[in-house]
Amino acid sequence: MGRTIGIIGGTGGMGRGFALRWCRKNDILVGSRDGGRAAEAAAAYAKAAAEAYGAEAVRGSISGADNRSVAAGSDVLVLSVPYEGAEAACAELLPAARPDCIVVSPIVPMVRTEAGFEFIPVKDGRPSSYDIVAAHARDRSMVVSAFHVISEKKLADPSRSLDCDIFVCGDGREAVEAVCDLVRQIEGLRPVRLGPGSLSYMAEIATPLLLNAMSRNGIRNPGIKIV
Fold this sequence. Notes:
Layout: E1 4-8, H1 13-22, E2 27-32, H2 35-53, E3 62-66, H3 67-72, E4 76-79, H4 86-93, E5 102-105, E6 110-112, E7 117-119, H5 120-124, H6 129-136, E8 143-145, H7 152-155, E9 164-170, H8 173-185, E10 189-195, H9 200-204, H10 206-217
Parallel strand pairs: 1-2, 1-4, 2-3, 4-5, 5-8, 9-10
Antiparallel strand pairs: 6-7, 8-9
Helix pairs in contact: 1-2, 4-6
């Protein structure tokens, strides 16, 4: 069996997508501030996964609980939360995570202005998402930055194919390789290592870049592919 993957913010579109894509080989813990809402979402995801793949092909379970319980019970913890809530979420939840838990940050610090989508660390001089998460982690080497440039709509629909690269940054070799393996488990995705955690801002800034290109050129649900 694979890992136990907890998803903070698991009732959102990205949470649904991660749960449906990873449940074939891993146990999924869907997290929410409301444990009841998380349990309802988990039941819906389990039904959708069985319909998409066939019950016999889903080897992992999908269950829901409050965020703190999910943080405490995960081998890998994915922080699918908005940038504005990242500081509070990390301060509350990361102390509850196990020392060997890999923490994945797909958080993007961006804001929409009259000019378009802008990168908050450049615009306002605030920290990158990775730096916020790493500051609250027990072990900075267990924090990995990834999954910033994937289409939420495509990820959440297992009938839709994916074909893009996922930038991965982190200081711990084993943690980075574990996340690269999770990237590969989602058919059509390829991990591309960018370097240490200090370069995570390069992965994060790719999202507003991609969205500006999408909105100005009529591109639907784009991704990034290095060729």
